[in-house]
Each structure stands twice: as structure tokens, then as C-alpha cells.
């Protein structure tokens, strides 16, 4: 089952920086030289370039004849790949300038190089044929880097905007404006690398941009303050702060350092750098320089004075050690050279010195030393720190260090060592931070939740997402006072965050990385049991170590441990990045494996999971399976989730389009169209779209002589609700539809079609015909309560019982009606048909008012509206609102009634136009409400229109009510005609046997009489 999934994929998507360097005009130059000499010159050039690439841990991808292509960030990931490339470029230009001067002297040559740099995604891996394949990077990112090189002036390095964005602040960049570049669809903004910038770390960058307000972290600050107090009392110690990148280690240290300084305490800071692992002792050197107060610009002599001054004040014995210290700090004293020591011995000497500096007897003032990012520390420094940590006990020194969770410390802290595990910001602090960054404009409502969800409280991610949204134009205005200009649907992953996360993912061990990638395909969470089949690591034991690596590294956490383990991503962004690092093919394989695992492992949940299975099948390029599972999911959503059902049927239709035609796909093609059409009367549908679907379904059904589908098509075109039907033609269409269904011989279809068709009898107020048709449905169902379910309506049986109740209600047999409604409600609940439940409650509520309990009616109708809202279908919602209005009217709340009825109309008309079978009824009730609130002119006009429509179309169920509304309105305007309207109403009601209507009419007659007197 895990076939095709390899732990070592052929390639990966990676975020890298690509650097091209070449000799300007090498052809001309070569011509001037003896070929052998030229070869030597070029070799010198290549080795300069290659050395600088290697110094910053880049890879020379290839030699291009007169230059090189180098990649930073692959195969080994570096989150600072752009910075490494820039450092390398600056040094290359320096070295080559020197080299060129030499060549000019020796050969009279005018030699210069140019460099192009770009950052972005590449496909990296062993690419090529069989054993000839070499590790390389390909993609648009590479091409654009080369174009930058071609564009660059001699002796210059040019960057694209993408690279510049990542290098910004760390380097001085000069904006050269936009250039038209061959192969790029839009002009490219180009920058020249002008030198090193002022920022050394991300926090420096934040400082330059202006720190966001410091939020939260009270508990952590307390721990630090308390340790400082102890150090002051001679009980020094070490504190480690652990967190994933961006959580705020540096910021916390910075805030603490500032507080300590303002309390008069000396603070020294040092920091390991991602690109510094190759430069031994960098952080220790930095620490010592900070300790001795050495500035970059200090002349050597001054440096020596500073060192000697401070050291000797602490302990005169240091005089012996000064030569070693001078040497180490790069300022050897020509008069007193350091003794010749082996590297080993020198290190030992230095370690001794560092410890003695800390423990010096003359030291009276407490000090704080902050050393950051130990996960990047070189071995030499790490060993030295171990000694330092051991030495701080019983001194006045507090050492604060920080590192990421994946760092395994090679040193033992003193017994007093304390570790603070820094958690992401909580929702309240995140909101505070966001308020500071974005402001409080009301248009930003809801953004905090979205951002908190996306960033999981990581302040770096929060800052970067806000910046990205501002750059993308979603936010408008100034920092701290933004307005929402365009709604935020997807925040994306900002490039700065992407590089950090991608590098972390890349640095995982292969199995851990594979597990993470597989998990990212599964979703936000993944169960232990699916992890095996989708990752290719079938054996549970072999998964444990990589899983631990992921948990310790803060990528995943155990969301559940019982009854089985479920792992969840800590950050949605990590998931996205892990997902994006995979090649499409591998990702597709994993999706398909995921789908199959779900099918195999959860047979009892197939219905519920069908949509998800379909999604994975689709992403796994299994279109046929995807279509099958989408259809299953669509059936399952059915009338309880009509919006989902429609969407899924559309998906089925689209998926089938790409498949070979056979019996199954043809059936799905026609079914998916018919069922979309079936939801048209509930949700509305664009008329052109409807016509297209009908045409296509008809074509297929006719071609395959598919009687079932032809019956459903007849239903969809001329017998369904939601049209301005005329009773006689509607009833004819129903009869024809029934005949087609009978002809198909499919019992379920016959039941479904019949049940739906009955509605026409009701609207025509043919209560006998209605009940006969309903009895027929019940009889056809027999003992099978689910017969015909989900084809047109959810449960035909429940509908039939409810509809009989309705007939009884209209005949004035309220006890029977009540019993039938109760029964229908029970069945609908059992059959899982919330739509029929909703219709039943609608009818029940109005019946309560007929029984003289209008308050109870209003209460039930109101609850029904709430429940129905969740269904998301226009038909049921508008029906529920209309019934609420009718109940409110009976409860003598005309204002409220009018509001409900207007809402009902709005809801309906918003989705469906062109008239429908209930519009006269809705208008009649609304007219009564208008009369109730005294808007009598509008009332009589509306009632006049409604009764006209009902009369013309033979909608005799609605007609008496609309006439009654007309009578009341006319009476209120003082115009004539009220009695005539009531007479007509009474005649219709009597003829059709609508006894409840008759009661209402008589009641109206009484009130008209009263009004006239
Ligand atoms: N408590 C906080 N309140 C406000 N901003 C914070 C807070 N913690 C971190 N930040 C900001 O988030 C960004 C990342 O923090 P940083 O300390 O650099 O993370 P880390 O060192 O853990 O990678 C910085 O710009 C920093 O100013
Ligand atoms: Mg940091």
C-alpha cells in the first residue's frame, strides 16, 4: 500500500538563494592571453569564488565556463541563505578586486567580475539520468539570478527584490528601480549590494523598524529578576530560555537586559550566528569584547589597554595571561608575543582565563551575561561555555542563555540551572500586540482571531503577517493605525517566516521530515494509525524516534493519547510550509495513501468521512474514486445540508468530465446534474446555469434511454416547487412525472416523485386528491420508512405523514392534525431529516394559533426559525419566517409580524426570482400585517395583487386568505368591496373544504361589521 512512497524522494521544493558570478567579457580577455596562462588565471578566479561559497556553507552547483552558479540553503538548509549569499558576494568582490589588481600589474589585464543573486523556491535534488544525476537546483529562481548577473555592472552584485527583502537591514542595498527582464512577466525591481548593514540579528531588524510594544511575559520576567537578586547576593547562576524561533527569546532577554542596565548593572551580550558555525569562538570573542568594552573602531593599542586595564584591576595575576588574551582577541602585542602553544593547549588556557574573570576575587559588582542562540554555537565556544557555567556558582554573575528546543546541550549547567520554556503569546497578549501593530479600527474586527489562529501566538509570525498584509494592500494606513482595505481570506506565509520554517523542516532527520510532510498532507491533525501507511514508515517502533524529534522540536504535539494517539501541528504555518516542500508527485501519493487508509480504517464512518476521502482522492489524482466519494458525501449531506450537497454534486460533475465514459461515469454525470437541479428550488439557481444543466442531463438521459433520469428531469423542469405554477398545468405535469416514474419501475423513485408531486394538490386546495396521493406514498413505502429517501426530499414517509396532518388542519380536524404532526416529527428525527422537521414545526406553530394559543405558536415558530437557519436553505427558512409572521399576527403583534414577513420575502427573493407557488400566500399575510400597522393603502394594493395572482393561477389554498386580507385592508381604507371579497373567499373555502379558512373569514366579517358601526 505504501507503494511509490520513498523516504528519499528525487527532489524537493526548497527555499534557497542562488548566486551567479562570472568574468565580464571573458571572451575578449581570453583572446589577449596565452591559453595556458588564461587557464591559470581562471583557475585562480574559480578558487576565489568557490572558497567564499564554501566559507558560508553554500554549494557550488556548477561551473559555467567563465563563472559559477552557487546555491545557499540546499542541500543543507539555512534560514539565512540570502544573508550567506550576500556575505559571500561582498567577499568575492573584495578578493577579486585584489586579484584583478595583481593581474593588471602582471599581465596588463582589465579583469572584473559581476554577481547576480536571487532568492526563492527551487526544485533541488539529484536531477538527471541514472548514475549521471548530480545534485542541482532548477527553476525560475535560478534563471532570474542569472539575469541579475548579466545585468550587473562590472565589480557589482545585483539582487532581485525577493533576495533584497531577505537581506534588508543586514546589508546596505541601493534601489536601482525596475527593469524589464527577459523571461519575467513583470518588470523586476533590482537592488545593488552596497555593503554590510547595521543589523546583526532579527531583533536588531525589529529594533530598526521600531519595536512593537512588549506584552505579557510577567512570570518570566519575575523569574529573571529573582535570579538577578540572588546573583547580587553572591548566588550566581545560569538560566536557559527555550522556545521555537520567533516566540520571543531575544526580546525577553533584551527587555531584561534593559531593566538590569537601568538598575545600574553591567550587561554583556553575545550571540551565536547561523553562518558563524564555521568561525570558531565567535560568540566567546564577542562576549570578551563586550566585557572589555572594545569598539570596532578602537586601534589595537587602545584595545590592549582596555583589556589589560580591566583584567589587572580584577586580579593582578592576569599579567601572565595577557599575551594569550591579546592574541585571542586579534591584537597581539609585538613586544610580548604569545607563547607557541598547540591549539588544544591554547584553548585550555583561554578557558581558564574566562573562568578566572568570572571568579576574580576583586569583583564586587554583579554582572549579567546574555548569550543568544546556542543552537548555532560552534564546538569550541560550547566547551568554553560549559566551563563558564560551572564557574558562576557563588559569584555575582548571572548568565542568561537562549536556544531552540531542538538544541541538545552539550554542557551541564550548575545545580542551580533553571530553564524557562517560553510559550507563545496567549489570545489576550496577541490581541494587545496586534492592537499595537495594526490599531483598533472597527474594520479590523475579527482579524485578531484569524491571526491568532494562523500564528498560534508567535509574535514574529504576527508581526510578519501584519507587514505582509500591509504590503499586499489588505491593510491601508500607517503602522499602528491600519484600516482593512480588502478582506483577508488567506494570510499566506510571509517570505521571512517561510525561510525560517522551511529551514527548520529541512534540518530534520530524513524520517522525521518525511513524517512531518506526511502529516501535513493529512491535515491539522493526524492519527497514529494513519501515519504508518501515509509516511511509508510502517513499523511503529521505527516511527517513535522521529516522532519524538518532531515533538521535542515543537513541530507537533500529542493532541490526544487515548484511545489512540493523535498528533497535531503546533503552527498552521509549519503545516503549510511542510506541505509546500514536497514535490507534487510525492504529495499526490501521500494524499491517495491517506484516502485509502481512511477507507480501510474507518468502515463505520464512511458516510461522515466521504467528503474528506473524496478530497484526498482528488488531490491524490484518483479522479474516479474522488467522484464516487463525492457522490456519497453529497447523498449524505442531502437536504440536511443542501449547500454542501449542491457543491459536492457540482464537484462530481466536474470530476466525471475528465474521466473515460462508461456506465458508472455516465450515471454519475446525469445524477450529479439532476441532484443539483433538485436543490434549485431550495437554494435558487442562475437560470442560464439551470437551463444548461437541464439540457446536458436531457441529452445523456435520452441517449441512454434512462427512464429514471427522464422522470426526475420532468420533475425538475415542470413539477417542482419554486415556479409561478398554474394549478391545472402543474397537476398535469405531476401526473406525467408520476407516469414516467412508474414506467421506470424503480419503486424508490416512484415514491420520491409521488411524494414531491403531492404538493401541487395542496396548493390547488384539492385536499381529497392530496390525501389520496399521500396514502399512495405511504402504501408504496410499506414497512420501509426510508423508501425513496434522499432522491427529491429527505424522507418521503415523514413528509406524507406531515402532509396528511396539514390536510387535516385545513379541514379543521385539529386533534388529528396534531397527532399526525407529532408522528411526522418523530419519524423525521429518526430518519435524520431536519428539513421535514422544520416544515412540520412551521405547520405546528400556525396550528397552535388556530387552537387559540398564539403565544405558544409564536414561541414554537421562533425556535423553528433558529433551528432552520442552520439548514442554510432558502425555501425552509422563508417558510419558517412566514409562519412566524402569521403567528405574530394572530398574537396581535403586527409590527413584529411585518418584520418577519418582510424578512421571509427578502430571503426568498434574494435567491429565487420569477415567482413561486407560495408568493400569493406570503403577500396576503404581509398585507394583513400592513393593515395591522396602519399602512392601509399599501395593504390593499398588495392584497389586491395577491388575490389576483392566486385566482388566476388557481392557487385555491392561498386564495381565501388573500381575499380576507383584501377585505380587511379595504375596510380599513373605508373603501367598498370588503364584503364582496369575503363572499368570494367563503365560497372558495366552502367549495374546497378549507374549514379553518372559513372560520377566519367569518371572524373577519365580524370585525368589518364592528368597524362599520
Ligand atoms: N512579548 C512580546 N511582546 C511584543 N513583541 C514581542 C514579544 N516577544 C517577541 N516579540 C517580537 O517578536 C519578534 C520575534 O521575537 P524574537 O525575540 O526575535 O524571537 P526569538 O528570539 O525567539 O526568535 C521580534 O520582533 C520581537 O520584538
Ligand atoms: Mg532570537
Please, could you describe this protein's structure?
With 1013 residues, the chain is α/β, with parallel strands linked by helices. Helices cover 60% and strands 11% of the residues. It has 44 helices and 18 strands. The strands form 4 sheets. Strands 1, 2, 3, 4, 5, 6, 7 and 8 form an 8-stranded mixed beta sheet that branches. Strands 10-11-12-9-13 form a 5-stranded parallel beta sheet, sandwiched between helices. Helix 17 (495-506) crosses helix 21, helix 18 packs across helix 21 and helix 24 (623-637) packs antiparallel against helix 25. The structure holds adenosine-5'-diphosphate and magnesium ion (MG). Residues 203, 249-250, 372-373 line the site of magnesium ion.
Question: Characteristics of this structure?
Answer:
1013 residues; binds adenosine-5'-diphosphate; binds magnesium ion; 11% strand; 44 helices; eight-stranded mixed sheet
Amino acid at each position: 500500500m505504501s507503494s511509490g512512497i520513498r523516504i528519499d524522494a528525487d527532489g524537493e521544493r526548497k527555499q534557497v538563494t542562488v548566486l551567479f558570478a562570472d568574468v565580464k567579457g571573458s571572451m575578449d580577455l581570453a583572446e589577449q592571453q596565452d591559453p595556458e596562462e588564461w587557464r591559470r588565471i581562471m583557475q585562480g578566479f574559480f578558487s576565489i569564488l568557490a572558497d567564499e561559497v564554501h566559507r558560508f556553507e553554500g554549494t557550488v552547483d556548477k561551473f559555467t565556463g567563465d563563472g559559477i552558479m552557487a546555491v545557499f540553503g540546499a542541500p543543507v538548509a539555512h534560514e539565512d541563505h540570502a544573508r550567506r549569499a550576500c556575505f559571500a558576494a561582498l567577499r568575492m568582490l573584495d578578493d577579486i578586486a585584489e586579484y584583478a589588481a595583481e593581474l593588471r600589474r602582471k599581465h596588463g589585464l582589465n579583469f572584473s567580475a559581476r554577481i547576480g543573486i536571487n532568492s526563492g523556491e527551487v526544485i533541488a535534488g539529484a536531477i538527471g539520468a541514472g548514475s549521471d544525476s548530480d545534485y542541482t537546483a532548477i527553476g525560475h529562481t535560478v534563471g532570474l539570478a542569472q539575469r541579475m548577473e548579466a545585468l550587473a555592472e562590472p565589480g557589482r552584485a545585483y539582487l532581485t527584490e525577493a533576495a533584497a527583502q531577505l537581506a534588508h537591514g543586514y546589508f546596505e542595498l541601493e534601489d536601482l528601480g525596475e527593469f524589464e527582464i527577459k523571461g519575467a512577466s513583470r518588470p523586476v525591481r533590482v537592488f545593488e549590494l552596497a555593503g554590510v548593514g547595521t543589523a546583526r540579528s532579527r531583533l536588531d531588524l525589529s529594533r530598526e523598524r521600531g519595536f512593537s510594544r512588549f506584552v505579557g511575559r510577567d512570570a518570566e520576567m519575575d523569574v529573571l529578576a529573582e535570579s538577578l537578586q540572588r546573583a547580587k547576593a553572591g548566588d550566581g547562576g545560569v538560566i536557559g530560555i527555550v522556545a521555537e524561533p520567533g516566540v520571543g527569546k531575544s526580546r525577553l532577554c533584551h527587555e531584561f537586559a534593559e531593566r538590569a542596565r537601568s538598575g545600574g548593572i553591567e550587561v554583556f551580550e553575545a550571540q551565536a550566528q547561523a553562518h558563524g558555525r564555521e568561525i570558531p569562538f565567535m560568540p566567546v570573542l564577542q562576549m570578551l569584547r563586550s566585557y572589555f568594552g572594545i569598539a570596532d573602531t578602537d586601534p589595537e593599542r587602545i584595545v590592549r589597554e582596555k583589556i589589560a586595564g580591566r583584567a589587572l584591576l580584577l586580579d593582578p595575576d592576569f599579567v601572565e595571561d595577557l599575551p594569550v588574551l591579546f592574541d585571542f582577541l586579534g591584537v597581539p602585542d609585538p613586544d610580548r608575543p604569545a607563547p607557541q602553544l598547540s591549539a588544544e593547549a591554547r584553548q585550555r588556557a583561554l578557558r581558564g582565563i574566562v573562568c578566572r574573570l568570572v571568579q576574580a576575587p576583586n569583583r564586587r559588582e554583579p554582572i549579567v551575561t546574555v548569550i543568544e542562540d546556542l543552537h548555532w554555537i560552534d564546538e569550541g565556544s560550547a566547551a568554553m561555555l560549559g566551563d563558564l557555567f560551572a564557574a558562576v556558582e557563588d559569584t555575582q554573575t548571572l548568565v542568561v542563555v537562549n536556544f531552540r528546543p531542538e538544541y541538545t546541550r552539550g554542557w551541564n549547567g550548575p545545580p542551580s540551572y533553571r530553564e524557562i520554556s517560553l510559550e507563545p503569546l496567549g489570545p489576550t497578549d496577541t490581541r494587545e500586540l496586534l492592537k499595537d501593530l495594526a490599531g483598533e479600527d472597527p474594520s479590523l474586527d475579527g482579524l485578531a482571531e484569524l491571526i491568532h489562529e494562523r500564528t498560534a501566538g508567535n509574535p514574529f509570525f504576527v508581526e510578519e503577517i501584519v507587514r505582509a498584509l500591509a504590503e499586499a494592500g489588505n491593510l491601508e494606513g500607517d503602522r499602528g493605525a491600519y484600516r482593512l482595505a480588502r478582506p483577508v481570506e488567506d494570510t499566506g506565509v510571509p517570505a521571512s517566516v517561510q525561510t525560517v520554517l522551511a529551514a527548520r523542516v529541512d534540518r530534520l532527520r530524513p524520517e522525521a521530515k518525511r513524517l512531518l510532510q506526511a502529516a501535513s498532507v493529512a491535515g491539522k491533525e493526524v492519527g497514529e494509525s494513519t501515519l504508518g501507511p501515509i509516511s511509508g514508515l510502517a513499523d511503529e517502533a521505527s516511527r517513535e524516534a522521529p516522532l519524538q524529534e518532531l515533538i521535542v522540536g515543537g513541530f507537533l504535539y500529542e493532541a490526544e493519547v487515548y484511545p489512540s494517539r493523535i498528533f497535531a501541528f503546533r503552527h498552521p504555518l509549519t503545516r503549510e510550509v511542510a506541505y509546500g516542500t514536497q514535490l507534487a508527485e510525492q504529495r499526490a501519493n501521500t494524499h491517495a495513501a491517506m484516502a485509502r487508509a481512511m477507507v480501510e480504517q474507518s468502515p463505520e464512518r464512511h458516510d461522515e468521512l466521504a467528503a474528506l476521502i473524496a478530497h484526498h482522492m482528488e488531490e491524490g489524482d484518483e479522479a474516479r474514486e474522488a467522484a464516487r466519494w463525492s457522490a456519497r458525501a453529497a447523498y449524505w449531506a442531502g437536504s440536511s445540508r443542501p449547500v454542501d450537497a449542491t457543491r459536492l454534486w457540482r464537484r462530481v460533475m466536474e470530476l466525471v468530465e475528465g474521466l473515460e465514459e462508461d456506465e458508472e461515469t455516465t450515471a454519475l454525470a446525469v445524477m450529479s446534474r439532476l441532484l443539483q437541479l433538485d436543490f434549485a428550488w431550495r437554494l435558487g439557481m442562475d437560470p442560464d446555469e439551470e437551463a444548461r444543466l437541464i439540457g446536458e442531463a436531457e441529452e445523456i438521459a435520452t441517449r441512454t434511454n434512462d427512464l429514471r433520469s427522464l422522470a426526475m428531469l420532468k420533475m425538475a423542469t415542470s413539477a417542482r416547487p419554486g415556479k409561478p405554477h398554474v394549478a391545472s398545468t402543474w397537476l398535469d405535469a405531476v401526473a406525467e412525472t408520476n407516469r414516467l416514474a412508474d414506467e421506470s419501475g424503480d419503486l424508490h423513485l416512484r415514491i420520491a416523485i409521488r411524494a414531491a408531486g403531492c404538493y401541487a394538490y395542496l396548493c390547488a386546495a384539492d385536499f381529497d386528491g392530496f390525501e389520496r396521493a399521500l396514502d399512495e406514498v405511504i402504501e408504496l413505502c410499506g414497512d420501509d420508512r426510508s423508501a425513496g429517501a434522499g432522491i427529491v426530499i429527505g424522507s418521503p414517509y415523514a413528509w406524507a405523514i406531515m402532509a396528511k396532518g396539514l390536510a387535516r388542519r385545513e379541514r379543521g380536524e385539529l386533534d388529528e392534525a396534531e397527532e399526525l404532526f407529532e408522528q411526522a416529527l418523530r419519524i423525521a428525527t429518526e430518519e435524520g431529516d431536519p428539513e421535514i422537521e422544520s416544515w412540520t414545526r412551521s405547520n405546528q406553530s400556525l396550528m397552535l394559533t388556530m387552537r387559540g394559543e398564539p403565544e405558544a405558536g409564536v414561541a414554537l415558530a421562533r425556535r423553528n426559525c433558529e433551528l432552520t437557519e442552520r439548514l442554510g436553505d432558502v425555501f425552509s427558512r422563508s417558510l419558517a419566517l412566514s409562519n412566524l409572521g402569521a403567528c405574530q399576527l394572530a398574537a396581535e403583534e403586527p409590527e413584529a409580524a411585518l418584520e418577519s414577513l418582510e424578512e421571509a420575502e427578502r430571503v426568498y427573493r434574494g435567491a429565487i426570482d420569477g415567482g413561486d407557488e407560495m408568493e400569493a400566500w406570503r403577500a396576503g399575510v404581509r398585507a394583513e400585517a400592513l393593515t395591522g400597522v396602519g399602512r392601509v393603502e399599501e395593504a390593499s394594493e398588495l392584497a389586491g395583487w395577491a388575490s389576483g395572482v392566486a385566482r388566476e393561477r388557481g392557487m385555491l389554498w392561498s386564495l381565501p386568505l388573500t381575499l380576507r386580507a383584501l377585505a380587511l385592508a379595504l375596510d380599513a381604507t373605508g373603501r367598498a368591496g370588503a364584503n364582496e371579497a369575503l363572499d368570494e373567499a367563503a365560497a372558495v373555502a366552502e367549495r374546497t373544504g378549507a374549514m379553518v379558512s372559513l372560520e377566519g373569514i367569518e371572524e373577519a366579517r365580524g370585525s368589518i361589521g364592528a368597524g362599520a358601526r
